[in-house]
Amino acid sequence: MAHSERRGASSLNIGEVLAALAGEFPSMTASKIRFLEEKGLISPERTPAGYRQYGERDVERLRFVLALQRDQYLPLKVIKDYLDAIDRGERPESLPGGLTLAPRAVSDDVAAELRTTRARALSEEQLRAESGASVSLVEALRSYGLISEEDGRYDEHALQVARACVQLESHGIEPRHLGQFRAAAEREFGLVERAVAPIASRRDEAARARTAETAREISDLCLTLHRALVHGRISRMEGS
Question: How many other C-beta atoms lie within 10 A of the C-beta of residue 170?
Fold first, then answer.
């Protein structure tokens, strides 16, 4: 069933949609909503005069897309492919980024997923509890610049780093060995930043949305290239 057919009876204008999203996404703008429409993520109905009308399902869909962008760093194309599958009546086993979704009552389940994927500020105790990292590992990750805190709190990025480093530590790979990853990430960001500079130079809200999305797409391609190169070397180990 197409998402345009799943709207509730009420309809909202774009200002009301922004107000509904403001608590979770305070930097959201009308231009960004129109950008997401342009990319096919939402399809609001139109009045005979051409004004957009948004239903509650549109708002939930926006929340879902924005949360995946913010918390899972996924390009819009990946998110759209997933939502297109849902719209076709398919039931993908997992969401982009590895989240799970029960194969029924999609809109309700999407709302439940969103409650678990919103950005959080974690204390060091929470960071250690959720990642399995020891006190010494967290201290080492900080000292090597792999994670950082702000006002004594850590974000989801730090949690993902800590989880990965716990697993790497079990293979004998310690934080002191991982400086090259930070350096590579900084070089990759510099490459992405230069690539999007022509878009970023524009000052309108839509340009900022396009800049962020293009940056995500380029970063995703860089990660795919990196993975392919490393896995290619590993496959040679199997054949040697």
Answer: 9
